[in-house]
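To close the chapter, one final illustration. This time we ask the reader to focus less on the individual chains and more on the assembly as a whole: which components sit near each other, and how the overall shape emerges from the parts.
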Amino acid sequence: MKKQILSLLLAGVMTLSLFGCSGTPGLAGDETPAPTAQTTEEPVTLYIGTTKAPEVMSTMYERDAFGRMNYNSFCAAPFLERDENGVVQPNIMTDWTFSDDLTSMVATFATDQGITWHDGEPLTMDDIEFTFNYLMDVKKSSYIHMLESVERINDTQMKLNFDGPSAFNFINYACMAVFVYPEHIWKDVDEPNEYHEADAAVGCGPYRFVSWDEDAQTMYFDAVKDYFKGELAIQHVVVRTYDSQDALVMALRNGEIDAIYDYSNSLNSTMAPSITGIEGVNPGMSDNPGQYQLVFGFNKQPTGDLAFRKAVRDALDYELLAATIGGENAEIGGVGLVAPPNKGYNSKLPRLSQDVEAALTALDEAGYIDTDGDGWRELPDGSQMDVLITAPYSTTKKALFDRLSEIIASNLANVGVKCSIDDQHQSDTDTYRAFIYSGEYEITLGSTSPGVAAYETAFYYYVNKGYGNAWGTYSEPEFVQTYLDMMNSPNYEIYNERVKALQKMAAENVIGMPLAWDKCYFPYRTDRFEGWINYPGWGVINNKTWYNVHPIAGMDD
Amino acid sequence: MHKKLNGRVLAGLVILGVVLLVALLAPVLAPHDPYELGIPYLRPSAEHPLGTNDIGQDILSELIYGTRISLLIGTVSALTVTVVGTALGILSGYLGGWVDRVIMQMTNVAMALPSLPLTIILVAFLDASVWNIILAICITAWTSTARIIRSRVQQLKCLPFVQIERTMGASGAYIMLRHILPNLGEIVFIRAVLSVGSAMLTEASLSFLGLGVIGQKSWGGILHYAFFRNGIINGAYWWYVPPILCISISVLGFMLLSYCGDGSAHGRDRKEKGNAGN
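The assembled structure is written out below.
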């Protein structure tokens, strides 16, 4: 019997030890370890945490931690950057002039500013010309799908010819993720995605790749001396990968890292209490230009029916959806789909609201009646109705998508609409993509990343535009044409007008709904560095970090 | 000695009785509809003694209703595993020869497979439903029962009463059903009881990993959302500790109940030893 009592006690202790694993908001900061002292004279190291693993150190590869860091003009240098307002800014491409018809542009490049590749070779106009031709002919980059040819004008200028009035589209679409590549390394490489030699990491950005420790999931970078864009206050950058956001937060709270960077993957808002009120930690909250959304499938019934879509819009509990997605800081989305931080946001359109009575009336009037008395409405032709709710495959967001599906199914059940939660197509990426690209979905949930929201907008996932990596099924001609016109806008003013027009059409035709307009959280420590600039939806690790962030004066041993 | 053993069994019976009552009386005991949506992340209060989860459902009600799924999966899986394991064990032990070799090879192969990963793969590929979870649990869980039963049957078939039946011309099926099976009662019961606890743990593991049925209330499912919706890092112990305790206590109950065969088994051992001495 003693053994059993001991076992019970041991089990109890083990259970209670879980309490120790949990964070207690507001307390951890009280025991913040003394920051590692750094004086301005000593080499300064910035520690960045992420959840994306390093896979291949190649400037051609975007999907790992190394590639994602390059979105911040880091090791590889993009032609163009984006500022905190989402507006395109020069980088290696220093200036540009569009032709009147927007079918070409003359661009100027920083090839006369003494930039060298990280292996010591100078950046030349040959590299620029090579890059465009290589991306068009070999890599076949979708970012520059509108580019037809390039003509060198002189040692700093080049004319870019497009297949349509796409000059403005080009600088926005190709911004941030189209990098300049060294000809001497890539000219003989026919399969750029398969080339993983050490020199694949050579770029001409402000930081040079030094090494990576695969076991420790850590990458090391050094600052480039005399970089053409200005002095770099941080000499070394260390990027560490953590298994989960929980681990990332604990590392930040412990002072192991200075900031979190995770492209398009803000900390879950439900973690906000764990990073709020902690001494030396700023939650890094910002408005999210992206969003979680509901997309109707227009190839299927009943979701192809406007009356049904309006009823769904009225039936949903947006307060609960917003709270589930974004906690207390999230807002209910608007009928126009585009979130407030984005260019062209139409503030005159109303926010979504639940009106169950209106939903019931709309369904009755449209002929969705429960004819067999089983408690569920049938389709107007009398056949059974069972709406499928599909959510994307996601290892990190599965729990959230499951919950959103549950809420939507529950809300629709309250107005007599039977729904099934689709777990068959959520089992892996391939299955999900195959289904979603077939256009056979009825209701699918999804999210717009801040990068897509910045120019292509959330409509990217709705419109059947006939190109690109999207699955929209909304084919109404005026809407499609307006979207294409938006993409080919000549300037931001006209772009904004077209975005507003799309929002109005989206609201009238109920092509979908934002499930919330939430906040992003990219927390950072404030006890070692200052000068952080928090890009909405992006965080404090961005293209300006390298020039603005510096150690807090007076920090010493 | 017997009092001590009975104490364990009694404790097990009390625990399981309470669990069973909670499962049966869930609609009466639960203060709210566990599927009813409300205000998320409420701390414990008089209205919600264990607070609310991330979509505003009452955690205590979830916990009470979760008893049903955990018990259902545990008992049905255990029943299936026991029936299959016992049948194969009897056939293998009694018939011997190529039947024994085939069944034991199957058992060896099944035992060599890592059961939890295999179960996870099966559940991931099958449509999510309670019955598929039960199927996935059963596919690998029958092996140890089959082996133990086989060993016991091999002992029993050498005993005089079985030999006499054979001499009298009784068929194999008759002997197995009428004489062997009744003598396996204790072992089968103990294996069944232990299998319930094991199946409940497997179900909790699967649900915790998000492989359960979306929206269904089970203890593992509550833990899943508590973990993946940041209940743990935010210190919401009222969300994640109760299902851990429920799982632990229920499994403990079944383990204590498995001691009920101890007394008679020991008695039988002594009797058999006595017979051998004669």
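Chain A has a mean pLDDT of 89. Chain A has three domains: 28-76+205-287+521-557, 77-185, 291-517. With these observations in hand, you are ready for the problems at the end of the chapter.
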